[in-house]
Write a structure and sequence with these properties.
14 strands; 3-stranded antiparallel β-sheet; globular; aminotransferase; alpha/beta; Aspartate Aminotransferase, domain 2; about 35% helix; binds 4'-deoxy-4'-aminopyridoxal-5'-phosphate; about 350 residues
């Protein structure tokens, strides 16, 4: 049993069963007498782990053979640069600005020479909604969105229909939270340290027709190199890939993405219902764009926020402090947070309200 409920935005709580399984196997992987972190990435045992992990991801997300799956390093942040470098043809890309991570993605694209057009933005209201976007995407190499905004707590529930122009999505904070039609996207990327496991691994799902032979890029920054070398051009993040495999098994055991999505919606609804009636706590996002992964809230009084965060720490609720740019509180309730964890948070909020009321 867990001793605390951890609401961290990432690295985040991962399924307890995964931690237990990793612990059990840590000293001797598959009775080899060697730890998974000691074996070569070129060994047949590890190649099998990679192949199986890719197969499980393809199966859960119904990823067709038109797409490659890459296991990379450098975090989602490296993708902010790698994507424009690899997808550049005309040299112009469209970005929908829905928060801090979209801003960073766009800035990085500019640094590598991409002309960035911000075609829609919600910065007029502290990014507390998803803006409407124009429908003509001609003249762009790709259209970039951040599908879930980890800091601000908003999500795209519909995606731009970009036709022949590839749609690129940073899904770091909501991949695997619900079923997804991958075929709408040219490229999906996600840092693993939320719904996919631990830090050190970035998953890229890329339509094969976007892979190009190109000489000008350093090999480590070239998607095609990684694809042709089956994510083992250099030493991949072996332990993080192994953990991803365990997480994917866990998701399948939970009943797959439909069942996971149902539970995620129930969890978020429980917390939003509490926030919507609370006299002390207010959510910062209203309406249809509310995230079911990251839920920011405030009391409206910085000193009281601070007191509440301390109260949480004394009551087995960890990492509830909001991001330093946003303030207040934030509950990140990824796949691995069970309903009991959300209920425990609500009980602590209610107790604090009673204490102060
Ligand atoms: N994009 C989003 C949506 C994020 O939440 C984060 C933070 N984990 C990042 C990008 C940056 O990820 P990383 O730290 O893996 O570079």
């Amino acid at each position: 049993m867990r001793e605390v409920w951890n609401f961290s935005a990432g690295p985040a709580q991962i399924p307890y069963e995964v931690l237990q399984k990793a612990q059990e196997e840590f000293l001797s992987y598959d009775n080899s007498g060697m730890s998974i972190v000691e074996i070569s990435h070129r060994s047949s045992a590890f190649i099998k782990v990679m192949e199986e992990t890719e197969r499980k991801l393809r199966s859960l997300l119904h990823i067709s053979d038109d797409y490659g799956v890459l296991f990379l390093q450098g975090g989602a942040s490296l993708q902010f640069a790698m994507i424009p470098m690899n997808l550049k043809k005309i040299g112009k890309a469209a970005y929908i600005n829905t928060g801090n991570w979209s801003v960073k993605a766009a800035e990085e694209a500019e640094r590598v020479g991409m002309q960035v057009d911000v075609i829609a933005s919600s910065d007029d209201k502290n990014f507390n909604y998803i803006p409407a976007w124009p429908t003509d995407f001609s003249g762009y190499d790709y259209v970039h969105i951040t599908s879930n905004n980890t800091l601000e707590g908003t999500t795209f529930y519909e995606f731009p229909q970009t036709g022949d122009v590839p749609l690129v999505a940073d899904m770091s904070s909501n991949i695997l939270s619900e079923p997804l039609d991958v075929s709408q996207f040219g490229l999906i990327y996600a840092g693993a340290q939320k719904n996919l496991g631990i830090a050190g691994l970035t998953v890229v799902i890329i339509k094969k027709d976007l892979l190009k032979h190109q000489n000008q890029l350093p090999k480590m920054l070239d998607f095609n190199q990684h694809y042709e070398k089956e994510s083992a051009y250099n030493t991949p993040p072996t332990f993080a890939i192994y953990i991803l495999g365990l997480v994917l098994d866990w998701v399948a055991e939970q009943g797959g993405l439909e069942r996971i999505a149902e539970r995620n919606r129930t969890k978020a609804q429980l917390l939003y219902d509490y926030l919507d009636q609370s006299e002390m706590f207010q959510p910062t996002v209203f309406g249809k764009d509310r995230s079911i992964m990251n839920i920011p809230f405030i009391t409206g009084d910085d000193a009281l926020d601070k007191e509440f965060i301390q109260y949480c720490e004394q009551h087995k609720i960890a990492t509830i402090k909001g991001h330093r740019l946003i303030g207040g509180m934030r509950a990140s309730i990824y796949n691995a947070m069970p309903i009991e964890g959300v209920q425990a948070l609500i009980d602590v909020m209610q107790a604090f309200e009673d204490l102060k009321g």
